[in-house]
Amino acid sequence: MSTETAQVAEVKKPEEALLSKRRKKLVTDPLIDDNPITIQVLGICSALAVTTQLQPTLVMAISVIFVIVMANLTISLLRNTIPTRVRIIVQLAVVATLVTLVNEFLKAFAFDMYKELSVFVGLIITNCIVMGRLEAFALGNKPYDSILDGFGSALGYAWIILAVAFFRELLGSGSLFGVPIYDAISGLFGEDFNLATNGLMVSPVGAFIILGLIIWVQRTKTGYVEH
Amino acid sequence: MQQSNAYIITFSIILTVVLGLLLSGTSQVLGPLQKKAEELDTKKQILGAVLEPEKLSAMNPEEVLSFYENRIASKVVNIEGLEVENDADGNPIVAEKVNVAKNYKMAPENRLFPIFMYHADGNPEDVESYVFPVYGSGLWDEIWGYLALQTDLNTIEGVTFSHKGETPGLGARITNQGIQQRYQGKEIFDESGELQSVYMQKGEGRDYSSDKHKVDGLSGATITANGVNDMLKNYLNYYIAYMEKQKSAKTEIAALN
Question: Which chain B positions have a beta carbon within 8 Å of A7's beta carbon?
């Protein structure tokens, strides 16, 4: 029965280096070749929603890294005890708990960020990357490998949303991390010179365009084709 | 591997209890910190209506709290403009703790209306401006803000607006300083003393500096702008009784002098 085969049998291997080639691949693969956003096209929703400015995006990226790594670790530790028939619910419960923790911490220590990100922190629960890694990796692998895998996938997600946010904040608001770049550039050319910001970049449509361009550039370079 | 039902149920119960304890423990520990953060946020918004944004953002949390302590006095009035000091159980009411959103659900006659007075350092009698909380609905969700009036209770000193879920880049622009500055110096009463409020117009990019009751609109966010207009008009209306009392008290004092 396919639903009962989530636990992959482990092969006994000789002691492996802390960062062996295989383990490095776990982290580096999702950065480009198997990027969760540009190749697997997961987690698009939050990539569109939170990327108008770099600062909230950075907080979002850190939150996602924390949630994926911790969820991968927890599920991997529990992988031999989780009943296969309820494993999805167990995964969800763990992820939801972690996300709620992140939300509570943001509310206590970074209230402005909490207000800005509002529902999108809660929506990490439904971020397909998290559940995807749990199902595909953490359920069948050892804790340390699972941490590396989660970290890799989360970094792959993080750098893409940061790249999108970089262009959206620069072109849409003329600033980076809230520092006005356009004003400074305009100042160099005298008073009459004024760089106009692009309002389209502030709306979700701008994120689609930037994301599309990133995917295009990446696939041209790597020659990836969808099967 | 097929587990027995008993195993699955036990596993689920243990998991639920462990996760539940973890969550409730965290919220217990972080609760007071979160309350403080919320309080600071409210005070910042109130001060935002009367202070320059640069000045406010330069302050650290302790400075904000002590500045607030020294410069803001508050009271709570009802729809008739009479001060309310105790609630139904006789407990004192604190203006900062009055939840405007919750009051919004009640009939206006039963609502409590907090008022914050920005006064000279150490002298609550020497009021420089009055700050009135306002609350309403935008396009997607609630919007709220604080409107500061000068001592003539007519000229707008400043406003701050916040929102829960307006469209980023469109309606969400009401939190923008440039847009809030459009309200400065506008007047809420006309020459005959009728409440006119201030209306954000449809479309953007026109000059309304000659009109005391109009400000430039938000392109692409007319519904949010209408929400702001309704919010201001409604709440100014609720505060009218208080303003009238305040004004007549002032003329009396002037007459005595």
Answer: 1
